[in-house]
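Please fill in the sequence for the structure shown.

STRUCTURE ENCODING:
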């Protein structure tokens, strides 16, 4: 591995007797992982239906290692049953204590690994605001939110400053997966080495300070910020947290279970006259000690009694505006109408917690239900992915090996053996993948064109 000389000298100084073990770890294979989407399937069920050799990831009870496989080629991936994610990256979402009903912000979310993981822990309750400052990266983020069937999420493309104007004191949990120098990814990604030489630690530290500055203002009393990076640099890890705590006495570090492979944060790596209490409560995954890449995590709690934040809410719409959608629900579904309905032109959304999002760059304002057409309602692909098979009155299920499943995912229409006409929820086994409309014994394909194989 061709590492920069300055980086080698830095790591020798930090790791001392462990340096040789670290360098030897570059000869290890890259560890690959996938995580069960518990909104749709349990880890054991996923393991049973995938024909892979899956081994559990110690720090994530929904995650598995896999080798020599191409899981994205499985049609179960199209059904959103699992998310492909680097094993150590699963640690942040695994260690953050999410409670049902929490209001959660993922500030630097794309492509969505931590957001989809948190969504599984929320299990449809509370609010998930998932944000990225890059409009391009938000496209991948949105698709992953929708394919995973997340129906309590808002996707935004905003700066931390603008988010803080809207959400002062609102969130119970905030994930700051901070932009960093990426030293922990050198083994896996050679481009990360080039990026390190361009995006110096000092540059990343300035971004991290800014993000944390606005994150603290959006956190409710008693709430927790999960700060994580994939770098070894103390300046971006222990020293960044130390600086934050010294400047914000109403915050404190809380410990988390490190028995799965974490080591304590390195207090001795902090170059500062004053060291905040509990720096060792932060944690590190080191690639020469675990099967995964380098990762750092700190859980920072805001002191004080939990409080409710006031936030502007949307106005209730006139029921006449959604009469056609209500008819669709009655005719095709076994579930009640969603709350907090908002219409943007012809698009219908259910807005988590009814939040008024005016003033923000919004990619998706909530659960996208469908389109209001002339005297009819057309359900969306996202809506199908957020449903369960039993939610629909009419369903069509294909076996994983059925050739008609391939035809459906390619966007083809074909003859189908059913006497029931109208909308059907199309499934792989019991897992929804989209809509189809049966007319005269033929399935008209409604699978989203951009998702076709």
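FILLED IN BY: designer on duty
SEQUENCE:
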């Amino acid at each position: 591995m061709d590492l920069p000389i300055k980086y080698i000298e830095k790591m020798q100084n930090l790791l001392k007797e462990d340096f040789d073990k670290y360098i030897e770890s570059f000869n290890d294979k890259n560890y690959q992982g996938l995580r069960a989407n518990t909104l749709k399937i349990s880890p054991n069920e996923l393991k049973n239906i995938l024909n892979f050799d899956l081994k559990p990831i110690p720090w994530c009870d929904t995650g598995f290692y896999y080798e020599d496989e191409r899981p994205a080629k499985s049609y179960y991936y199209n059904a959103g049953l699992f998310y492909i994610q680097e094993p150590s990256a699963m640690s942040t979402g695994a260690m953050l204590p999410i409670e049902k009903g929490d209001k959660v912000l993922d500030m630097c979310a794309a492509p969505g690994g931590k957001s989809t993981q948190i969504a599984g822990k929320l299990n449809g309750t509370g609010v998930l605001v998932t944000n990225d400052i890059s409009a391009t990266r938000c496209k991948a983020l949105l698709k992953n939110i929708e394919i995973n069937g997340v129906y309590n999420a808002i996707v935004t493309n905003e700066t931390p400053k603008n988010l803080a104007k809207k959400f002062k004191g609102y969130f119970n949990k905030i994930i700051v997966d901070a932009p960093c120098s990426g030293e922990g990814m050198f083994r896996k990604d050679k481009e990360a080495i080039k990026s390190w030489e361009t995006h110096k630690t000092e540059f990343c530290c300035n971004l991290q300070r800014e993000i944390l500055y606005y994150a603290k203002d959006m956190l409710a009393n008693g709430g927790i910020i999960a700060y994580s990076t994939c770098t070894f640099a103390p300046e971006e890890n222990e020293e960044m947290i130390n600086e934050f705590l010294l400047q914000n006495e109403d915050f404190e570090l809380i410990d988390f279970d490190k028995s799965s492979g974490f080591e304590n944060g390195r207090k001795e790596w902090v170059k500062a006259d004053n060291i905040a209490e509990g720096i060792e409560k932060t944690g590190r995954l080191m690639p020469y000690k675990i099967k995964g890449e380098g990762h750092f995590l700190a859980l920072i709690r805001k002191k004080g009694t939990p409080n409710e934040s006031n936030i502007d809410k949307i106005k209730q719409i006139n029921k006449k505006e959604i009469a056609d959608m209500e008819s669709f629900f009655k005719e095709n579904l076994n579930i009640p109408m969603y709350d907090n309905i908002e219409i943007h032109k012809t698009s219908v959304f259910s807005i988590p917690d009814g939040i008024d999002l005016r003033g923000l760059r919004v990619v998706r304002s909530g659960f996208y239900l469908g389109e209001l057409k002339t005297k009819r309602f057309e359900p969306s692909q996202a809506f199908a992915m957020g449903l369960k098979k039993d939610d629909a009155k009419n369903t069509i299920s294909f076996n994983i090996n059925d050739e008609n499943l391939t035809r459906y995912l390619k966007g083809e229409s074909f003859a189908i053996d059913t006497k029931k006409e109208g909308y059907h929820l199309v499934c792989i086994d019991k897992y929804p993948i989209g809509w189809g409309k049966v007319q005269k014994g033929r399935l008209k394909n409604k699978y989203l064109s951009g998702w076709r194989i």
